[in-house]
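Thread: Sulfotransferase, structure

OP (GT): Posting the sequence first so everyone is looking at the same thing. Length is 405 residues per the record. Can we get the structure tokens written out before standup tomorrow? I want them in the notebook alongside the other entries.
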Amino acid sequence: MMECSWKVFALFVFTSLGIQYTAIKSLRMTFTTPCPSLTAENRCGHIKDNVTRALCEDINAQPGRKHILIFTTARSGSSFLGEIFNQNSDVFYLYEPLFHVQDMFTNGLPSIDRRSLLGASRDLLHNLYDCDFYLLENYIKPPPKDHITYSFFRRGSSKALCSPPMCNQSQESQCLKACRKINLTMASTSCRSYKTMAIKIIRIPELNHMRTLVDDPRLSLKVVHLVRDPRAVLASRINTFVSQYRSYQIWNSSGRKPHNMDLTLLINMCTDYSKSLKTAFSRPSWLKGKYMLVRYEDLAKDPVKKANEIYNFLGLPWKEGLSSWIEENTNATVAPNSSKYATIRNSSKTVENWRLNLHFSIVQTVQNLCNTTLSQLGFQLVDSIQQLKNLSQNLVEPRVFLPFI
């Protein structure tokens, strides 16, 4: 009976949101005819309703505006890669806005397949790239009042949302204390003042799911696809997501796989990786000039060089001070805190620490399930505990993954 009730509730929520999407898209269509004045402010300033005015202004987005998608999976080093954009004062960076979509549908309910959230996720991303933050209000809990919320996920991880006019604090902790609330109308206005917007996501399963956004000529979206050795990803998840990976922790500490062990999480990770790489390596026309694959291991080994390559691909000018920030944050002897989102560490020395923390039997299982992915990305297999623990033997083959131009 309980199983039936939550399914009915989920169906009701999906249906309600579907009606909202239809209403919003219909509203967009009312602005297909150019307004008489020359500026978006003159064209749309007479409209009192914030949502309607934002949609009108959206038709006149800045020409030449750059849109960047950091496409990756959880615990792949994406927080650090995101910071390479966040530290650029010319970039409006958002950290995981799709958290709100997932939270809306999964809180208090059994886990829902992320694929069932694709429509909502893509619609939200499209709106955010247009600097339209109003659709986001449908997913924030509790609902914003007068477009003001105290619940914007990791707001402090975006310097743009912590800088004037939004706030005036450079550090995440200070931003959260001094500027607890966020005005989404002001966020939309601030966003439009930037010529580059970057969004990091970990909640879209496959690269192919992003095709509708990449195909949109008005967005001119470019994708930076961050990948990492699946063995390292799993080791990090076991250490970070305690409740979700409890059975893996038991397995890792004892060396014995629990009876009836559910490997769904691991299988899904391997499957998503494999399908995304298959799409990328087939070099489809819709990715031409819009896709770059980055191994976290290469980024960690020479972060300044790799970051420059990424900026060159995206056509972004290198900012003064960015090199020194990267050097400072990737050569730390001791991380200043134990936050799971920390980006300060000695990256070149910690990139293979998973080999010391993951039991050999788990490594063997990952290698069996992710064999194709490991081969595609140039990660060598290990066939003994001695080989696993011998850090002098590099498991990362030298590979050059050129951007698809």
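GT: Both are above now. Quick notes for whoever picks this up: DSSP finds 21 helices and seven strands in the chain. Residues 215 and 286 are 6 Å apart (CA to CA).
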